[in-house]
Amino acid sequence: MVTPVAFPDPPLLNSAGVHEPWALRTIVELDCGDGLVGLGETFGDAPHLDRVRRAAAALVGTDPFDLAAVRRAVAGDHTPRADGQDPVARVFAPFEVACLDVQARAAGQPVHALLGGKVRDRVAFCAYLFYKWAAHPGGDPDGFGAALDPDGLVAQARLLVDRHGFGSIKLKGGVFEPAAEVEAIQALRAAFPDHPLRLDPNCAWTTGTSAKVAAATAELLEYLEDPTPGIEGMAEVARAARMPLATNMCVVRTGHLRPAFTQGAVGVVLADHHYWGGLRACADLAAVCRAWGVGVSMHSNSHLGISLAAMAQLGAALPELTYAADTHTPWQDGVDVVTEPLSIVDGAVTVPDTPGLGVTLDRDRLGRLHEQYERCGIRVRDDTAYMRTVDPSFRKLRPRW
Ligand SMILES: O=C([O-])[C@@H](O)[C@@H](O)[C@H](O)[C@@H](O)C(=O)[O-]
Ligand SMILES: [Mg+2]
């Protein structure tokens, strides 16, 4: 069964615009008919939802232990996308996770056992800071407050660190002039002297601006994420930067690995099972990174508890994961589709050893979030269009500065 859901999202700012009041996801239930149900979670945009629905229909009768057959069934009549991303990987991913959940439940083992066994009991996550408004236009203030300057961000960091004990901090930049974002990083360093810091402007800067920011933050950042577009641009910045550059934008499929690594464009790749094609594809990615001496971190988008559990299971089994993973979990403020979401305590999720992913679908919650999907009117995430309702002159520019 494939169920689209919507959940409230705060007005988080990024280089593309601002998050809309509702975030979308798609929940996959793989019912094997003998009481075994596997769970998966993926993006919620309508074209993707449509592909996931078609894949689900094509999968009926396929053996959940035969991932090659599952992948073939999912591939169907796919056509490559102009933006270079691999739609099969994206559509296969939630089914791969659901199949692993089924396989692990059938074996009475946690998913990490199927990924080679756990190398850690706790998977660290970072506090993911965003510039944000106090409220959506015309809406009531949310519980997180505004964060439009260094003081606001430091207050936000305190809130997230107090709630979840995060031991490292990432700032989503690309929102204000680079100098203002450097000031924000300096303020975070002063307030959190021992927390590793990262800054991610989502390609909002030219190579020249990126090199200047890299110089200004050389002593402050553990890595600088996607300062500028493209592998060549990143390589140019990497030659000037003292810290490693990280990416979830210029290395998003296998074909990007060789050009990025031979040019020394990135020192850290953010794995994301939702678009690399599942948990095993991310383990393969991590092994390639290890061979090239490139670090591994983990990327996130707005998501719910099935994805958090999948990330935790993967993180437990990846020896290469030496950085705290991204997660948007705190921004969802407890809203979920699972009965007991995994919690982030002392900056980490304790990885469940129970059979499967370690989370159970709550049908009432799923039903409520699906009703919200039906009512919310959003069918494709569009941060830029939403920003333009507030500032009609806004344009998504990469680079902007
Ligand atoms: O949630 C956001 O606004 C992020 O900007 C997200 O869309 C990015 O994909 C991501 O978190 C990133 O690291 O670039
Ligand atoms: Mg990023």
Automatic annotation (TrEMBL):
<protein>
    <recommendedName>
        <fullName>glucarate dehydratase</fullName>
        <ecNumber>4.2.1.40</ecNumber>
    </recommendedName>
</protein>
<dbReference type="InterPro" id="IPR029017">
    <property type="entry name" value="Enolase-like_N"/>
</dbReference>
<feature type="domain" description="Mandelate racemase/muconate lactonizing enzyme C-terminal">
    <location>
        <begin position="150"/>
        <end position="244"/>
    </location>
</feature>
<dbReference type="InterPro" id="IPR036849">
    <property type="entry name" value="Enolase-like_C_sf"/>
</dbReference>
<dbReference type="InterPro" id="IPR013341">
    <property type="entry name" value="Mandelate_racemase_N_dom"/>
</dbReference>
<dbReference type="InterPro" id="IPR034593">
    <property type="entry name" value="DgoD-like"/>
</dbReference>
<dbReference type="GO" id="GO:0008872">
    <property type="term" value="F:glucarate dehydratase activity"/>
</dbReference>
<comment type="pathway">
    <text>Carbohydrate acid metabolism; D-glucarate degradation; 2,5-dioxopentanoate from D-glucarate: step 1/2.</text>
</comment>
<dbReference type="InterPro" id="IPR013342">
    <property type="entry name" value="Mandelate_racemase_C"/>
</dbReference>
<dbReference type="InterPro" id="IPR029065">
    <property type="entry name" value="Enolase_C-like"/>
</dbReference>
<dbReference type="Pfam" id="PF13378">
    <property type="entry name" value="MR_MLE_C"/>
</dbReference>
<dbReference type="Pfam" id="PF02746">
    <property type="entry name" value="MR_MLE_N"/>
</dbReference>
